[in-house]
Amino acid sequence: MFLTRRATAWPCGRLFSTMYGLQVHEIGDESKLVLNSGVSIPEISPLECLVENHYAGLNFHDTYTRTGLYPLKLPFVVGCEGGGVVKRVGRQVKHVKEGDRVVYLQEGENGSYAQFTNVKYTRLIPVPDDVDLDLATAAAVQGLTAHYLVNDSYDVQAGDWCLVHAAAGGTGQIIVQMAKNKGAIVIGTCSTAEKAKIAKIRGCDFVILTKSDELKDDDDVWPTLADKVKQIVTENTDGPILAANYGPFNLNDGVHCVFDGVGKLSVHASLESLRPRGTAVLFGNASGAPADINPLLLSRLGSLSLTRPKMHDFIRTREELLERGASVFQMLRSGDIELNIQEHVKFCEEGVIMATRLLQKRKTVGKVLFNIKQGLAAD
Fold first, then answer.
1. Domains in the chain and their CATH numbers?
2. Does this model's pTM top 0.85?
3. Mutual orientation of helices 133-148 and 318-334 as an angle, nearest 10°?
C-alpha cells in the first residue's frame, strides 16, 4: 500500500553510527514528520539497553508531541511504543540480555520510530515465546493503558454501568473487553455504524452513534448524548433507587464511570452521563485538549469524581510494569481479550504521514503498526 525506502544492508554483527529515524524538527502538522537517514544511533547509559526495532505502534500520544501539546526538545524521534530485539546491554542492567525479545514504553526525544532506540531497562517488558512480537507490540501502550484504567483509575465492579467513548478504537476495544470480563454493563460510543458493529463484537451491550445520518458530517450528537445514556440505563435497570437527601432523584440515572479518550468534544457529555458519585476518567485528547473544568460543576452534577491519569504514573516500578505486562499477555493467551491489528504499514515517510492522518480523522479501527525492519530492508 505504501512506498518504502531502501536502507543500506548492514554487515552481520556490526552497527553503523547512524540510522533511519522519523524526526520532528519543528512543531506542526503531520507534514513535519521527516524520515532522516543520518540520525545518530543513541549511546546507552549503564541502565539502558539498545533495542533494534521491528515494530513501532501508532498512538495519539505521537500526535501530541508533534503538535507541542506534550513538549519535547527539538529535534526528536517520534514514538512512545516499540517492539524488537535487544542488541546491547548497559553494564548495570539486570535480568535482560542480548537477543531478548522485548516491547517497551518510551518517554523523551529518542522515540520508537527508528531502527534503534535506547530504552531504560525498567521500561522493557520481555515477550513470552508463545506471543508474537507484533501482537505484543500492539498490546503495549493500549493494553497496559486499559489495564490501569479499569483496575486503578476506576476499579470496575460487577454490575457497574460503564460508558466507553471510541469503543471501536484500539484502546476502546480493550477497555470494553476488560470491563466486561469484570462483570460490567458497557455502553459504547462510535462515530459510524461500521464501528458500532466492531464495538458490539468486542462486548458492548449498547452502542450510541456520535454521528447522525440525518446531520452533516461536521454536526454531531454530543450535546444530547447524556440523555441517550441515561435513557438506556433507566430502561434497563430494575426500578429507581431514590435517595431521601436528593428528593425524587433516581440514583440509577446514569453510569458509574466513563472512560473518555476523546477529550474536548466529549468531556461535558461524559460528566453529564454520570450518576451521583460517579467517576469520569479522562485519558486522551483525540479531539483536542478539554477546556478547564470548574470544580463546582462536579458538585452541581452530583458529587462527581474526575481524574486525568497518565501511563507512567502507573508503571513507576519495574515490578508494576512486569506485573501489568504479564497480566495483559495472559489475557491474550487465554482469549479473554482479542486485539485487532488493523494494518502493518511499511516504515517510510509517506506511510507514516498517511497513517497519522487517518488516526487524526478517527478513521482507524484497532491498532496500526509500522514494520520498521521490513520497511527499511534492502530488496
1. 18-140+312-375 (3.90.180.10), 157-308 (3.40.50.720)
2. yes
3. 110
